[in-house]
Amino acid sequence: MAAVSSASDTGDHRGRHPPERRLLILGGPHSGKTSSSNTILGDEYFDAGIETTHSNVGQTEIYGRRVTVVDTPPWAVPADPEDDGNSEGTDNAATEPDNPACPPPSLDSEGPSMGAILCPPGPHAILLVVSVTQPFTDTERRAAEEQLGALGGGTWRYSMVLFTMVDKLPKGVFIEEHIANTGEALQWLVERCGSRYHAFDNTRKESEDNTQVPELMEKVEEMITDNQGWYFEVNELILLEEEQARRALEEERMRMEEHARQREQMIGGPPRELRLLLLGWKGVGKSSVGNSILGCRFFESGQETELCLRRQALVFGRRVTIVDTPGWDWFSVRRTPKRIRQESQRGAALLRPGPHTLLLVLPVVSSLTARKRRTLLAHIETLFGDNACLHTMVLFSCGDWLGRTPIEEHILRGGRELQRLLEYCGNYYHVLDSKTPGKDRSVSVLLDKIEEMIRENGDKAFLPIQTEWLSEESSYSSDNTEPEDDCRGCQLQ
Q1: pLDDT at position 203, please?
Q2: What 3-state class would DSSP assign to 61?
Q3: What DSSP line would sit under 328-397, residue for residue?
Q4: CB-side neighbour CA atoms (13 Å) of 170
Q5: Which pairs count as long-range contacts for 439-445, CB under 8 Å and 24+ apart, including other chains?
Q6: I want to staple 186 with a disulfide (CB 3.0 to 4.6 A). Which of 136, 207, 363, 420 is the partner?
Q7: Residue 156 and residue 417: Cα distance in Å, rounded?
């Protein structure tokens, strides 16, 4: 949000300091932010040879006016899947590849938005640095838009595009022609900044006829005049909350990478195959959940499941075998027909030598009463024994109904019965959006949690098949019971 800066922003009232201008430098990886900051400051204030991980502040005096420059870490740009993404460059545009890979942020670094806090009470100008040697696609455009949005509303009126590496443009090509030829994404960015832009050749900063910095400051003054002397007022509380959210996401990403690394290094750890049994009462979405995990429509959803069905697929590097089962009655075990109970046991027997995890499917839209909880546990213990709790995980279906509500908040609102059910399962739970089979990133997280449960169970990695599950009574003719080594249903995700 903007604040009037005319009187209070011109420095000390007693004239001990010259009027100040504050510039916030933002940009993607290898855009030349650090080199441009040094060019403005007239000296090598910042090390352009290494990646910027924390915002840095430098000050100088230009024509009697104190100028504060804040250099920031690069904003995150998703990697192009067609890009090799191989080189580890620096922030100096003079040494950057044409298609730089964006290294993932770490907990040791901070987000670019935190730099705004270092130029209180807020920047007069936000310079968006773009190298002319790099393609500017919709991916970069969205990254820039998200970064400006993270600062708060009203940032665009204080923004200007700063082009770097203009010495690399073909001879006779001016920056205006480059903007026109590069594409709609770059044109959108320039127009969003009120058609304010400037071009830097950071190799000319030592030359005597270098007028690019004074010309930039003239354009900054024009923008301040257009904004009636206002500057962008920083809301530190919002920025700190944004940074905490970013770090939480980064911690989750690092946790997933560590799990993947441990999985690769483990000897005698989780098997390459994960055997999962879908359980729950009627109509909870077991078949849809199975399709989401396997990434393909293997199970017929929308109609009642009569017989167990086993299917396999390669999912995130694991061979996942799933058995879908008929639904139970929610009121009591006795009201679940005997053949349905036997079919549930037969489903476990199809996962020789036993299922690793019993996925108890529970819609987030349903409420769990004491009777429903007792009935669910009675089914599990009656059919699979007292040790089944060690291998049971609650899988919330219809996760799209949560919107932006965290699953933890939903659990708190769900009441004591839901919390007791999760305690029975060792607090192993996950939420899945079954509307997008094969495209839900949370499937990978689910498989990580299942392997974590397997590690916790140690020498009891799976629930062993019991002989009574193989009784003739529970054997129903079905062409869905292929031999264990038959992988005709295998599909590569």
Answers
A1: 76
A2: strand
A3: BPSS-STTS-HHHHHHHHHHHHTSTT--SEEEEEEETTS---HHHHHHHHHHHHHHH-GGGGGGEEEEEE
A4: 5
A5: 440/292, 442/399, 443/292, 443/293, 443/295, 443/315, 443/316, 444/256, 444/316, 445/256
A6: 136
A7: 49
Written as six digits, the tokens of 244 are 């905490």
Task: State if pTM tops 0.90.
Answer: no
**In this predicted structure, what is the pLDDT of residue 99?**
46
User: Which tens digits make up the pLDDT trace of 130-151?
Assistant: 999 998 999 999 989 988 888 8
d(CA 387, CA 358): 11
- The rounded mean pLDDT for the chain is 79
Distance CA 307, CA 299 (A): 11
Tokens at residue 264, please? Answer: 């690769």
Rounded CA separation 15/387 (Å): 78
Residue type, 33: K
pLDDT at 319 > cutoff 80:
yes
As a whole number of angstroms, the distance between CA 78 and CA 323 comes to 36
Angle between the N-to-C axes of helices 407-414 and 416-424, in degrees from 0 to 180, rounded to the nearest 10 = 120
18 preceded by cis ω (within 30°)?
Answer: no
